[in-house]
Amino acid sequence: MTNGSGFGMALRGYAVDEVDALVERAEEALATRDTVLRWNVRDALRTANFNTSLRGYNRRQVAMFLEALARELEGPAN
Fold first, then answer.
1. What is the DSSP letter of 23?
2. Which of 5, 13, 59, 73 could join 42 in a cystine, given CB atoms 3.0 to 4.6 angstroms apart?
């Protein structure tokens, strides 16, 4: 089962609202040329700690997606 973000749902997964908020921050950072903001969000992606929810996002999928976003934020702004 997937949702609007594309993550599968899992028992004892990551809290949906917390993940969605961080992904939204990352998408906003990707749309800017502000290097400091991009690096700050990149660091937040790599150090994120989410609460666990009875029905939440699949942890592995989230971790892989956040790392891909972090790598994208390391590159030059488009």
1. H
2. 73
Beta bridge partners of 56: 10
The mean per-residue pLDDT over the stretch 59-66 comes to: 96
Residue 38: both structure tokens together:
């991009």
Q: pLDDT exceeding 90 applies to what percent of the chain?
A: 86
Residue 15 CB burial class (10 angstroms; 0-12, 13-18, ≥19): middle
In DSSP terms, 63 is beta-bridged to none
Of 60, 48, 74, 53, the residue nearest 8 (C-alpha): 60
CA distance 65 to 14: 13
Q: What counts of helices (H) and strands (E) characterise the chain?
A: 3, 2
For 48, counting Cβ atoms within 10 Å of its Cβ (0-12 exposed, 13-18 middle, 19+ buried), the class is middle
Identify whether the C-beta of residue 29 lies closer than 8 Å to the C-beta of residue 78: no
